[in-house]
Amino acid sequence: MKYYPIFLDMKGRDCLVVGGGEVGLRKAKALEKCGANVKVISVRFSDRFDKIKVCLEKKEYEKKDVNGMFLVFAATNNAALNQEIKRDASQLHILCNVADAPDESDFLLPATVDKGDLIVAVSTSGSSPAMAKTIRKDLDLYFGPEYALCLVLMGNIRRQLLSSGHAPEEHKQVFNTLIEKGLLALIKANDEITINSILCDVLGDKYLYQDLVSSRSDE
Description:
Elements (H helix, E strand, L loop, with lengths): L13 E5 L3 H12 L3 E6 L12 E4 L12 E4 L4 H13 L3 E4 L12 E5 L2 E5 L6 H14 L2 H19 L7 H10 L2 H6 L3 H12 L5 H5 L6
């Protein structure tokens, strides 16, 4: 099976998770973090659900629960029920992930490394989730916090350039120059003096490192 990699804008999307255990909790937590409107249905819930802002409905699953959902996650410990949820979603042309049956899911959830705006996704196409997690751990060590800071810096530079009327087609050269001058390594070393010198040379003296990383870009 060859899967198509994609990143979805989940903000404000209605999503259903059926299952109140640890698997359902992980699905709900990831969705909530991305801004989705999450409803979780189960007859029992892990106490850890109290730590996330999602809608909890303590009841048995019903077919009508999938109506209007953008994505559905069948995450119960009952294989037959998971298959029922998958069939109900398919009838309404809603994509469904089945936690205990990746081969029968419409999509898979990759192992991810999350460093601010940097999201690195790893998938073994369902062949070995354990291997995907091992690779994720290796990548998590490789991509340090300097990547998150660098992307905040780049995002705010881009926003300021756009607001000053700078042509978008010229941005590529600016950012390539910053990268070629070793900006990432300088951020890792916390060498603010050299960073500001580079920003001044490339962009002018109005661009200061601390000002640019103090707030995230809205774009």
